Amino acid sequence: TEFAGEVMKMKEVSECYNVSGGFDYILKVQVPDMKAYRHFVTERLGRLSMLDSVQSVFVMEDIKQTLVMI
């Protein structure tokens, strides 16, 4: 898709998933601080013409992370 092509160019995006449900995509964004995140959302991501809305969720604590496939 056009959105996926644009996201591939964004160095701040480390992961992108096309998902089912209430949203089309989930992005994992890595930036140094909230000022950089605000800039990314308003000046980069938010300027994509095909984007309808953005909802942010922040990780407060990493409880479990398993990388081994069963």
How would you explain this protein's 3D organization?
With 70 residues, the protein is α+β, with helices and mostly antiparallel strands. The protein contains two helices and two strands; from the N terminus they run H-E-E-H. It has a two-stranded antiparallel ribbon with strand order 1-2. The N and C termini lie far apart (31 Å). The model has no long low-confidence stretch (mean pLDDT 94).
In short:
The chain has 70 residues and is of the alpha+beta class.
Q: Tally of extended strands?
A: 2
User: Which residues sit in consecutive blocks of at least 5 with pLDDT less than 50?
Assistant: none
Helix coverage percent of residues?
Answer: 25-40%
Shape: globular
β-strand amount: 15-25%
Mean pLDDT: 94
- Spatial sequence of strands, sheet with the most strands: 1-2
Indicate the structural class: alpha+beta
Work out the radius of gyration: 13 Å
Instruction: List the helices and strands in order.
Output: HEEH
Distance between the termini: 31 Å
SSE topology sketch:
Layout: H1 2-8, E1 13-18, E2 25-29, H2 34-44
Antiparallel strand pairs: 1-2
